[in-house]
Amino acid sequence: MLSKTKSTANGQPSDEVASGNENKILIIIILGTLMGALDTTIVLLALPTLTSELHANLSISLWVILMYLLVTAVTTTQFGRIGDMFGRGKIFNTGFVVFTIGSALCGFSPSIGYLIGFRALQAIGGSLMQANSGAIIADTFEAHRRGKAFGFSSIGWNMGSMLGIVLGGFITTFIGWRYIFYINIPIGIVATAFGLKYVRDEKKTNAKMDLIGMLFLTSALILVSYGAIDITGTGFDAFNLSLIATGLMLGVVFLLVEKKVAHPMLVLSAFKNRVLTFSIFASFFQSVGYLAVAFILIMYLQGVRGMNPFSASLLLIPGYIISSMTSPFMGRLSDKYGARIIATLGILLMICTIVIYTTLTPTTNLYLIVLASVISGIGASMFWPANSSAIMSNADPAHYGSISGLSRLTGNIGTLSSFVLSITVASLAIPRNVAFQIFLGSSALIGNISTEFMHGIHTTFFVSIVLLAIAALMSLIRGKEDRTRIHEQHTASVKSVSESTK
Questions:
Q1: pLDDT tens-digit series, residues 77-107
Q2: Sequence-ordered list of residues with C-beta below 8 angstroms from that of 402, at least 6 positions apart, any chain
Q3: What does the H/E/C string look like for 226-294?
Q4: Chain center to CA of 217
Q5: Exposed e or buried b for every residue in 172-188, given b needs 16+ CB within 10 A?
Q6: Are the beta carbons of 132 and 83 closer than 8 angstroms?
Q7: Quick check: pTM over 0.85?
Q8: Distance from C-alpha of 311 to C-alpha of 296, rounded to nearest angstrom
């Protein structure tokens, strides 16, 4: 995996031993990332079946997905801070345990309400892992080697997403939807055992929780999400518009509160670093603009082309394969040249992908979607490792957990916003009951309705292009970085502290 450094003989553990431990830790991080990604895509494909078998309506069962995104969006920063306080390895391993238990309970759910509640528990476990994984990589790998490490960790996301697509259709069709959750149990048990052995606590700080900020952020996200989803079921009315308006106002209050509290969720001092600040903004706009494109594309393949969910999803697999193959290489390039150019080119490739999607018609050759998927995979492999490495390499080592959590906070809010936006646009483009039938795979569009739906899809894609253009601008103007210099500064800082305590 990562190359071993030369060994030493000074009585300390050799570099080869250290490198071996680094690789084991990285594998465990990959497993945690794989579990989270697997559960996201696998639930997307199983949603039609569990909606039917649990006798729910789509506007309610959508919360099986949204609850996971909402909980992770709210908790990642705080869980990263808990990792700073009590040990990142300890909190990360706790995440494995909670996620595994939550997965088992999801599989046993007797009703949609129980399933949504247990998804919240599962999300807490996923958030504990997400919030601290980047910090653990930053603790384990030197600044000038983190891009490659983040490249390998991206494999976990791509493999998990790909397996979720493949296994989601197969398990739901031939075994039963409950086993999409049970599949996490053996993985979680093995990962927990290895995590307890190899992922140890490194640095701890005296950080404290920001419960007030967490309350305002939670309230804001819940109100906005619920209001937007209600639009898909009833259309615009005074109720859902007031929910969204109140949520947005609470979001403003949250930002004001963060300026006053002693230990804010948002580590405001971190935004003094230009590279880190614009890297986080790039992550946010990329998430809002891109992460629900696959959802809209699947609706096109099912509703306009008449494909079943499993067959439609198979067209996206080439992109995940390409991304898994190229992520470590792209991460290594970011170590050598910095993140700005590589990450920005990655976003531009994503824009190219969506431009291709704007040409879709009811008779488009499906090979064009495969080509776009490959371009998308290359773009993702360039952006995520480089951008993640830029964030952590420019963070204060004492706040690695908080910054890792902040990075996931912005990404998760972007994902949640992207998903809600795509559902809302799709439901407004055509009659809502027809949109729900399309998503459930029980109806294909014909005639004028198909034309109207294509117009709605194109509108969503154009909005995504604008958001990705903003992300590309944020990425481009982040400034240059020298990973070797950053590593030397961090090493000198740690050495200075060490000598002052002698």
A1: 778 778 777 788 888 889 989 999 999 999 9
A2: 77, 80, 81, 84, 207, 267, 270
A3: HHHHHHHHHCCCHHHHHHHHHHHHHHHHHHHHHCCCCCCCCCHHHHHCHHHHHHHHHHHHHHHHHCCHH
A4: 18
A5: beeeebbbbbbbbbebb
A6: yes
A7: no
A8: 15
